[in-house]
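Lecture 7, part 2: worked example. A protein chain together with zinc ion.
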Amino acid sequence: MTHLTNVVIDHDVIGWAHSNMQKLKDRYNNIYIVGKDNSPEELMNNNISDLNIAKYCLNNNCDLVTADKKSYVDWFNSYNGITKLVISKFDYWNEGHRPILLIQIENTNHIENITPYNFNLKISKPLETAPSRFKNKIITMVNESLLHFPELSDDRITLGITHVNDGNASWEEGYKIRLNPRRLTYFTIGHELMHLLQFKGDLPMTENSTDIFTLARSMLFLDEPPCYLKIPRKLQNYWEENAESIHSICKDAIEYRKTHRNYIKWTEDKFGQLTIKTR
Ligand SMILES: [Zn+2]
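Predicted complex, written out as structure tokens:
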């Protein structure tokens, strides 16, 4: 990725920029404040629209610091010239009572046919260089899965590849999930995203509980049996035929857990007692 050395400061965060100038200078060679002296002519009009600010950043390889991501997301959704909008938290402005967001617009055309529902998804180098049929499939499926994890919508998640297992998740150096392109299922993606949610706290962290919470989250994740829960053989063989019952047992299990111990055994017992539909 090219090193960006220019940044544009949006109207709404000028106060923040003045008190954080050093932070900006550490990172950028040129700092252009909208409507202020020393900025390029196009940015000198105080009434410049968000659309024109975004276009300026796109055409001149500038990052953008703003507090208002919505207008840029709307613009991104309606504008065909770019493929990726990366929004990350840059700071929190106490006086202004708002988060300071860093927006990076990329018009690289190497990812095609992808609708980035989640603007924080970061593609790791190994995935970036993977065959495009793998890459597109993984990114599309992860984006689709992320719609069911609104708790992660503000987090930057790096997406990588693994060949040693179905998938794994880590958080030590930022949230990251790695997926196996040969054994890719929504279930695995959901399971790894559930681990990321666990790192935020409040959720049990065993593998069994990860499976239950994943299966309870959405029917999307019922495309294969889980690896850790005990599932009767026959139910494994007719997994998709019984997806609705399985999904609701797992939702019930999460309710049950609020007042009981041993909800995992409770869930496995329910699976054992289920009248299995074979078609
Ligand atoms: Zn796991």
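Residues 1-109 form a domain with the D-Maltodextrin-Binding Protein; domain 2 fold (CATH 3.40.190). Residues 191, 195, 207, 210 surround zinc ion (CB under 6 Å). Keep this in mind for problem set question 3.
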